[in-house]
Amino acid sequence: MDHILDYIMIPIQLIIVFFTFYYFILALFGMWRRKENKILVPEKSFAVVVAAHNEENVIVQLIENLQVLNYPRDMYDIFVVADNCTDKTVQLSRQAGAIVHERNNSKERGKGYAMEWMFAKLYRMKRKYDAVVVFDADNLVHPNFLLEMNNRLCKGEKVIQGYLDAKNPNDTWIAGTFAISFWLINHIWHLAKYNLGLSSALGGTGMCISMDVLQEFGWGATCLTEDLEFTMKVLLKGIRTTWAHEAIVYDEKPLTFMQSWNQRKRWAQGHFDVAGRYIPQLFFEGIRRRNWRLLDGVLHLLQSHFLLMSTFFVIMSYLNPMFHLYTDILFKIIPLQVWTIIAVGQYIFPVIVLIMIRASLKSWFYLILYPLFVYSQIPITFLGLLHRKNRVWSHTQHTRSISYVRINYYR
Questions:
Q1: Is 322 helix (H, G, I), strand (E, B) or coil?
Q2: Which of 148, 146, 140, 163 is nearest to 77 (CA)?
């Protein structure tokens, strides 16, 4: 029995240590930003697309915000794709000055389908845009967002993700811990990968895509995580997703645990779905082309699998002394000191990031509760694996009606 468990547990140890050190080293490269000479002259035109499904509570504040960005108003248009709306989203959006396109399709529901439909309309329009920028209806946007994206596009970047900040980080402990997780990912993952020349990933909102890329390869991303699906699709074509650290979008975070649970479960389902379809292709092409970006994409898609594997390892480590399942194989390969460094390291980076962004006192309090948020991801990920083939889209209700001029007050 011991030998059988050795064959299982020792490889698991090695995999856990590889992933942990890989992301630990990666995180170190997100602790600073490279100096950049920015192109500040507006050159690119934008189709700003807002995906909305029954968003009457928040849509007006976003459109008003978008109307006054620090960018020539004749170089961007604001489109709202009202997807299967039954409230006042259409009327309010038009009154606020947006160009509204109504979509009604009860079979193909979800943001991915709505964007595919809207992009097809953009292709046929008389006016041609250099790029598409996508926001969710609950967002608020930094005035310099389009200037930052213009800078990236002028430098030849084609698929770009903006900084995902929180609109309401102090509302509840759920919103607060959710915000911490995004701030952490922004630095130790997105910024780190950009500094290393690797491919980041689209985050669903605050993303910019060059129109020539959309027209050449098509959107075609309609699963529960359409952003991740498109990221991997164009990565296979040799186009990496880059990062614009100062192109900031403020996203509404869930207020309750169940809202957070349902949203993260949907993301986990979509992640496993995309992983199952793209890992073989990325791995094969990464080896064939000797392309580290493609192999790094594989590692990203394996994150959820890694979480389940490491959870299994921890459970077995607790069962070992209770049932004497195996001897000392937990530390036969990796010394105890290394496991200690791993355990401590995962709490160091959140502290560093909160210091870097000058987080509020309330956010420091929420950091105490952050482990609850992190460990709740384990059952969510397991359910995501079980339901990975379920592509039924669920809507997250948004209610925090905050104008951009008052955002700092609420934060």
A1: helix
A2: 146
Dihedral (C-alpha) 401, 405, 410, 411: value to the nearest 10 degrees? Answer: 120
CATH fold group of domain 1-411: Spore Coat Polysaccharide Biosynthesis Protein SpsA; Chain A (3.90.550)
Rg (CA), the chain: 22
CB 166 within 8 Å of CB 175: yes
What is the SS3 assignment for 134? strand
The pTM score is: 0.89
Task: Show the tokens assigned to 354.
Answer: 């909160």
Paired tokens of 231:
């990221």
Return the closest-CA partner of residue 162 out of 110, 195, 206. Answer: 206
Looking up tokens 């700003």 gives: 48
Distance CA 130, CA 341 (A): 47
Confidence of residue 312 (pLDDT cuts 50, 70, 90): confident
Structure tokens at 374: 């992190």
CA nearest neighbour of 166 among 99, 59, 249 = 249
Query: What are the distances in angstroms from CA 279 to CA 97, 233, 282?
Result: 43, 11, 5
- The residue ranges of every structural domain in the chain are 1-411
Distance CA 373, CA 307 (A): 14
**How many residues are recorded in the chain?**
411
Strands (E) across 167-240 are located at 207-210
pLDDT tens-place string over residues 174-215 = 999 999 999 999 999 999 999 999 999 999 999 999 999 999
Edge-to-edge strand ranges of the sheet holding 140-141? 99-103, 76-83, 46-52, 131-136, 207-210, 159-166, 241-251, 140-141
For the stretch 364-368, contacts whose Cβ atoms lie closer than 8 Å and that sit 24 or more positions apart, written own/partner, are 365/176, 366/169, 366/173, 366/176, 366/177, 366/179, 366/180, 367/180
Tokens of 355: 């210091």
Phi then psi for residue 159, to 5 deg, are: -130, 115
Residue 399, pLDDT > 50, answer yes
| Residues contacting 306, CB < 8 A, separation 6+ | 15, 16, 19
- Nearest-angstrom CA–CA distance, 47 and 134: 8
Phi, psi of 210 (to 5 degrees): -60, 135
Judged by DSSP in three states, 281 sits in helix
